Amino acid sequence: MSLAELQQLERASVIASYARAPVEFVRGEGTRLWDAQGEEYLDFLCGISVTNLGHCHPRVVAAVREQAGRLMHVSNLFYTEPAMRLAAALSRASLGGKVFFCNSGAEASEAAIKLARKARSAGEVVVVHGAFHGRTYGALSATPQEAKQAPFAPLVPGFRAVAPEPHALRAAVDARTAAVLLEPIQGESGVHVLSEELLLAAREACDEHGAALIFDEVQCGMGRTGTLWAYEQTGVRPDAITLAKALGGGLPIGALVTGERLADVLAPGDHGSTFAGGPVVAAGALQALALTDDPALLARVREHGQRLASGLQELAHVRAVRGRGLMLACELDVQAPALARRALLEQRLVLNATGPSTLRLLPPLTVTAAEIDEALARLARVLAE
């Protein structure tokens, strides 16, 4: 089927909620993608930080194939070994509490909000400007971005947004606060690293008033910043984290992981999900987690992140580079959306713009130094025109 035919099907049959680029990808391997015409692309977006181990990692693919051939679904009314093993592995690798599985980052945010509200009935949830926690109603209410919220008002009450400044956050937290929900690195707003002072202020305020500190690691977790979890580089330990994106190795899964204090807040019947933690995606996630939780890989992420950041700083029209590890953005003095489109169509380099002047790069954690240099060269050619 041609691209024109796919576009016709989309116009006739698909709700117009996405602005797709005019490319059909049909195959992926490692850092490379191929379109329907056989043209090869360098992927520095990873499906928005989903294919962190590269496309179709052999161990993930093998685990998914084997499990799909034995059992695909039974629901959470019964036990399956992959889900139980994955929960135990996530707990051991992070906060030591318990896990609720779901299917996406937005669902993980919803679970976190319900957890906090169950722990402190009717309590407020404090967030900071620039946050993005998802598009379902609770998650959207925790996402203080006018363009995303306004068309869907009224939103869920009980959310309070403040400036990402320590004094503003401290002033917002009191005895009525159920939780402070933060991304250690804000991804969708343009890769803004929250200061350690802000995170420490959040920890201290939550401890003082008995609120939960929840970190959204949907995009910045799973090795993206050079440690398995972004919070490990901050010196601040949250009470819970939300995960999704790269956790499934390319398949859809989300998770809320608690520390010990919040491990038993939710009881049977409080929350649920038909597909969550299904055996196929859990089998893939077990492999993805084991592969990512590798000191050698994480060290390379830090090393290659520095290489990519340094290279970006040398390019024309780049005014600033920010981020951590292989979660980077560069601020341009030209229009980023047009440049990202030209990079895709002219240089076959996949990345995206998160705003008028912001370009985001999220290459696989397995990217090589040669591939980084190749991507920089392709981007330089677009910026030079």
Give the CA-CA distance, first to last residue.
34 Å
By CATH, the superfamily of the largest domain comes out as Type I PLP-dependent aspartate aminotransferase-like (Major domain)
User: Structural class, please?
Assistant: alpha/beta
CATH architecture of the largest domain: 3-Layer(aba) Sandwich
How much of the sequence is in beta strands? 15-25%
Q: Can you tell me the number of structural domains?
A: 2
Q: Any idea what the radius of gyration is?
A: 21 Å
The largest sheet has its strands arranged as 4-12-11-10-7-5-6
Largest sheet: 7 strands, mixed
Q: Which oligomeric form is depicted? A: single chain
Gross morphology is: globular
User: Mean pLDDT, as a whole number?
Assistant: 98
Helix content: 25-40%
| Poorly predicted ranges | none
Detailed description of the structure:
- This protein is an alpha/beta fold.
- It folds into 2 domains: 3-9 and 24-44 and 295-384, Aspartate Aminotransferase, domain 1; 59-292, Type I PLP-dependent aspartate aminotransferase-like (Major domain) (Aspartate Aminotransferase, domain 2).
- Helices cover 38% and strands 20% of the residues.
- The chain has 13 helices and 17 strands.
- The protein has helices at 3-13, 46-49, 58-68, 81-93, 105-119, 137-141, 146-149, 166-172, 196-209, 279-292, 295-313, 336-347, 369-384; strands spanning 25-29, 32-35, 40-43, 96-102, 124-128, 159-162, 177-182, 185-186, 192-193, 212-216, 240-243, 254-259, 318-324, 327-332, 349-350, 352-355, 358-361.
- The strands form 4 sheets. A 7-stranded mixed sheet has the order 4-12-11-10-7-5-6. The protein has a 4-stranded mixed sheet with strand order 1-2-3-15. A 4-stranded antiparallel sheet has the order 13-14-17-16, covered by helices on one side.
- β16 (352-355) and β17 form a beta hairpin.
- α4 (81-93) packs parallel to α10 and α12 (336-347) crosses α13.
- The longest helix is centred in the last third of the chain and has 19 residues, at 295-313.
- The two termini are 34 Å apart.
- The relative contact order is 0.16.
